[in-house]
Amino acid sequence: MAAVTFPAVSGSWSKANMSAAAWKRHIIRQLKHRDRTQKYMYQDLIKSYNKLLERTKIFDPLNERLQVEFLNIFSDHLNSRLDVTSTVHRLEDPETLQLQHQKEVTKLEKTNGELAVQIYELGQNLQIKQKELEELQSRLKGVEGFFSGVVKRNVELHESVKKITCENTNIKQRYDELLKQHRTKEEELQKITNDLSEATAGIVKLKSLQADDMNNDNDRECQARWAKQLASAAAKVIDTTPKTVQCNEDTANTDEAPAVIRRAFRSASATFLSPIFTLKENILYKMRRVESLCDDFKGPSFVCWSSRLPTKALEIVEAHESDINAAKFSSISQTLATGGDDRIIKLWDVVAGRLESRTSLQRSSSGITSIEFDPTGYRILAASYEGAVHLWEVNACRPTYVLTGHRHKVTAAKFKSLYHQAVTGSFDRTLKIWDLNRGACTDTIQVSSYCSDVVSLEFLVISGHHDKKIRFWDCRTKVCTNEIPVEGRVTSLNVTCDHSQLLSCSRDDTLKVVDLRKMNCCRQTFRADGFKCGSDITKAIFSPDGSFVTAGSADGTLFVWNVKTGKLEASLAGQHSSCVNAVTWSTSGEYVVSVDRGKKAVLWSDY
Q1: What is the pLDDT of residues 67-85, one digit of tens each?
Q2: Using an 8 Å Cβ cutoff, are 493 and 520 in contact?
Q3: Are 603 and 355 in contact, with CB atoms under 8 Å apart?
């Protein structure tokens, strides 16, 4: 029996076991699938049922209490009915009574169920109301907090309003006080203005009287000089007898006849002025004589063939006691004139590379702003801060004329092509043309901006202004014929000796060359690193031959440009410690002088 094997049976048994296991797994998978699907469908219902059970457990104590109360009430009711109808109950059938009792219990249970449902609904409503109440209470707290903040803010605003009201009251009181003070100050200012006007009128009148006195003194001096000359001429005795020269034998033997030579004579009456030659005629005669002398004068002149490029400071002098505003070389010599805020014009001679003081011209009542020599080199025209222009004789110690008429400081005064005429520019927005023989203004040109500098040609006056424009004026019609705009306030103007080019300096730190022959177009602009126009009176100038332009910077450096190449030729630093106000070039082209706000004058050359 042990040796018997059943291979086929064992194989079928293993297959049956495998199929049974697969079938079980399949059943388990199907159950799980059904469980998942059906459980998912009834999951919400199960949760609701569980919640309902939990809620019923909550109401179990209440239900028990109600049942106890119901039993008590029912027992009392039964006792009362038994007392009233004891006889009837004794006669009734017990089964009937039990049925009635069962109906009443069922009714009471139904009522109990309805009451339980109502209690549950009321409980749910109560919970909802409690939630709503909590929300309302939270909102109420928020509203109360906001209201308290509003109340607090309202209190603060009320306090602020009270404070501002008090401040406004104080400010109103202060304003009233200041208004009273302002009215008082206005009255005082009006009074001071009136006093100033009266004082100005008095000063103008006094200046006019001084000028008249000075002119009268000059006239008296001229009259005395002419009277002395006439008296000396009248005192001379001239022999009017003709003299005969005898000829010698050689002369007698010649073919020529002996000549009788008579000396030209002039009688005393020829040089004596009759009493009819009145004082007025004498003055007019003197004026014509002076004008004739000026027109006919041909002084020595320096011809500049080639200007030297300044490279070295030859001498540094403290020329004035305050700022130096102007410097100018004479047109016929190496004489230099400087003027500044100390109200003095100083004359210097350049001798062997040194500045030697020559003389001082005083009598100016305010600072000097501009200096100009006439072409003869014997007269100086000086502008001043007080609104007057002084005409000086170089060899005199006081001005020949004081030209008054500007209401503000005069920034420029230049001689015209006719030596007895001059043109001036001022901060009172006017250009004036003067007759220097009469010391009177002949024409006034109204301009639209402060005038900083002027140059004069034959029938043309060119002016530079603070409104960044260069204007060209026809002296005959007093009409502006052209305007050239620049990028900054114009500080100076200068023309070449042949009147072909105009140089302007402006506060945009540039120098511009304008070609006067080609529709007044800007031909060249000069700039340099470190060059800065230091003030509204900074002067730039051409060299005498027109090959260089030079100007001083705000830091005291002197810059020199080449006109032909437009390149910077020299930058001379270290001698001036303050802003360079003016530069002038000697007529010979040998020397350059620069002056600054630090009272210094520096003489430059190339050796």
Answers
A1: 777 777 777 777 766 665 5
A2: no
A3: yes
